[in-house]
Amino acid sequence: MWVLRIDKIRERTAGVYYNEIDSIVWRHNDFGECLVPFADEIELASAFNDPDRTRQLADRIAQYMIQRLKTESGELDILYRHEYSRCVSSWSSAKLPYYLNGSIFPPLFRDTIKKKIFSSLDTAAYVELSAIIDRYESLKFTIGLRSLAQYLFEACFDLQARRAFHSAGLDKEAEEQCFAKKSDDFWRKKQEGFSYSVRVKALSDKK
Asked: Could you tell me the pLDDT band of residue 109, with boundaries at 50, 70 and 90?
C-alpha cells in the first residue's frame, strides 16, 4: 500500500503538463533536470539486474501509460473545445455570399477536429513514454528494453514497442514475430485508433 502511495505522489510530481497556452512543459528538479517518470526505478532495476524486478517495472510502466491516456482525456477535451471555438469564429468572420450562413459550416468539421485531437500521438503521455525509453537506452539496459517492449506491445503501444525491440537488438525477431514487416505508418494508424478509443471512453466515463 505504501509503495502504491509513493508511486502516486511521483506521478503527480514528475512528467509533463499542459500550460495555459496548451503547450507541453516538463517538470524539473532543483538542478534543472527533467523529471522523467520511473527514472529512479529504471536506474535501480538496471543496477540490480533482477529479472523479476525488471518485468514488474515494465508492467507498471505499461499500465501507467494506459492510465496516462485516460487522465489526459480531460485536457484534450479542453483543447478540442478551444479548436472548435476557433473554427466557429473563423467561419463567422468569413466573407461569404449573402445566401450562405457561416454558422452552418463548423458542425461539419466537429468530428474531424475531435478525431485529430483525441487520436494524436503528439501529446503529454507520449512525450513521457519517449523519455522513459530514452532513459532505458541511455543506461544501455538491454534486458529492461526487451521486457518493456513486450509489455508495451501487449498494451497496444506498437510504435514505442517497436523502438524498444530495435534498441534491445531484437529488430529481426520483432519484425518477423510481432510487426509482420509492416510500415510505421500502418502501426501509427492502429495506435491512433487505440488512443482515440481509450481517451473517448475515459471522457465518457467521467460524465
From this structure: confident
Contact in structure between 33 and 45 (CB atoms under 8 Å)? no
CA torsion, ordered 144, 149, 152, 158, to nearest 10 deg: 160
Residues sharing a CB contact under 8 Å with residue 30, sequence separation 6 or more, in sequence order: none
Is residue 135 situated within a structural domain?
A: yes
Residues 6+ apart with CB under 8 A from 147: 54, 55, 57, 58
Residue 168 lies in a domain: yes
Domain-located, residue 77: yes
Domain extent at residue 167? 37-206
Rounded Cα gap, residues 45 and 36, in angstroms:
15
pLDDT the model gives residue 18 = 79
- Predicted TM-score (pTM) of this structure: 0.84
DSSP codes of every residue in 154-167: HTT-HHHHHHHHHH
Q: How far apart are CA 106 and CA 90, in angstroms?
A: 9
Contact between 123 and 72 under an 8 Å Cβ cutoff? The reply is yes
